[in-house]
Design brief:
Elements lengths: L8 H13 L4 H17 L5 H15 L10
Helix pairs in contact: 1-2
C-alpha cells in the first residue's frame, strides 16, 4: 500500500545522492535506509556490515541462489 508522506528536502537531497551512486530510485533508497534502521533498532548489537550481509543472504535465498553447506 503506497501512501504520500512529507519528508525534509535535506533527506530527499541526500537520498538522491546515494540513490544515484547505488542505481536506486529516491524512494527505494529511503526504503533501504528504513529497513536497515529497523533491523539495527531491533538488533543493537549487530554491525551495519552484518545487517547488510543478512539482507543479501535473504535475497539470495528468495532467488534460490544458495548452495547447501556440507559439514565434514
Amino acid at each position: 500500500m503506497a501512501i504520500a508522506i512529507k519528508i525534509s528536502d535535506e533527506l530527499v537531497s541526500e537520498a538522491r545522492r546515494y540513490a544515484e551512486v547505488y542505481s536506486r530510485s529516491v524512494p527505494k533508497q529511503i526504503e533501504y535506509w528504513s529497513r536497515i534502521g529497523k533491523i539495527a533498532e531491533e538488533n543493537p548489537d549487530l554491525s551495519f556490515d552484518f545487517i547488510k550481509d543478512i539482507m543479501i543472504a535473504q535475497q539470495e535465498a528468495r532467488e534460490d541462489d544458495v548452495t547447501p553447506y556440507r559439514f565434514g
